[in-house]
Amino acid sequence: MSDALLRIEALQAGYGLLKAVRSVSFDCNQGQVLALIGANGAGKTTLMRTIAGAHPASAGRIVFDGHDITALRAPRRVGLGIAMVPEGRRLFGGMSVEDNLRVAGMRARKGPWNLESVLEAFPQLKPKLKAAAGTLSGGQQQATAIARALMTNPRVLLLDEISLGLSPIAVDQVYESLQGLIRAGTTLVLVEQDLTRALKVADRVVCMLEGGIPLQGARDDLSREHIMDAYFGLSRSPQAAH
Ligand code: ATP
After folding, report:
1. How many CB atoms lie within 10 A of CB 127?
2. Does some domain include residue 236?
3. What is the pTM of this model?
4. What is the total count of domains within the chain?
5. Can you say whether the dihedral through the CA atoms of 108, 114, 115, 121 is positive or negative?
6. Which residue of 47, 127, 131, 241 is 20 to 30 Å from 224, comparing CA positions?
7. Rounded Cα gap, residues 96 and 100, in angstroms
8. Which residues pair with 14 in a beta bridge?
């Protein structure tokens, strides 16, 4: 447990009186793919934004590579190697794909990712480099958003609902590229509503329900039934943690 790259300790976050994330704890190790799953409103986006520094924690700690980063601002976290692809992508729509990528690369950590290597990972972007990001298809925009995050050379990549609003073919293509990143040893925390897809790529599963975590564990130790129960809050399983 002590070699976690990302450790979340009794983290809380919310909006005024609403506690969207209630004392949540989990670890993500180097090279792991952690799927964060749960129904709408479970608190997944709030948790991801809190890890990235886009939303304040109201209690608890975020420890990254042994350092407490809970109070650090988002750009400092990017500098340490935490990058997020937010829900809805948030590209600079009027700027070319290439400029979207280069802007992210300006603050980059040292590492394997640069314009050339991200285009190898996302070859569908090669013919679109000079196109305004806002004119791309949903799948191409999602690829651009992930490529942009990679340009910062993250040690952990947070992906929030990357399939949302995409056609099944576009989702397949984005996931194909993700498989390449996973094979290269990229550490991923992935929010995914599509349970089948999430379970295909994840090593570890964290189930959120009403701001808490009724179930978490190694993918291979959890049955789909257990996960479905936790997803819908049908029962508290004996495997429940935290
Ligand atoms: P979804 O899959 O719909 O994105 P989620 O699991 O990511 O859901 P959150 O978006 O984190 O969940 O929302 C958790 C709770 O916080 C919900 O009750 C939601 O209504 C509330 N919430 C989210 N954003 C805000 C906000 N900006 N202001 C007030 N409440 C919010």
Report:
1. 10
2. no
3. 0.91
4. 1
5. negative
6. 47
7. 6
8. 19
Query: Cβ(43) to ligand 1 under 6 A?
Result: yes
Neighbours of 181 (CB within 10 A): 19
Q: Does residue 163's CB lie within 6 angstroms of at least one atom of ligand 1?
A: no
In a domain, 154, yes or no: yes
Q: Is there a contact between 39 and 30 (Cβ–Cβ < 8 Å)?
A: no
State the distance from the centre of ligand 1 to the C-alpha of 123, rounded, in angstroms. 34
Using the mean position of ligand 1's atoms as its centre, give its distance from the Cα of residue 110 in Å. 34
Neighbours of 213 (CB within 10 A): 25
| Backbone phi and psi for residue 116, each to the nearest 5 degrees, phi listed first | -65, -45
**Nearest-CA residue for atom 9 of ligand 1:** 43
Measured by CA distance, the residue closest to atom 17 of ligand 1 is 41
Ligand 1 proximity of 20 Cβ (cutoff 6 Å)? yes
Cα 96 to the chain's mean position, in Å?
24
Q: In terms of residue numbers, what domain contains 206?
A: 6-231
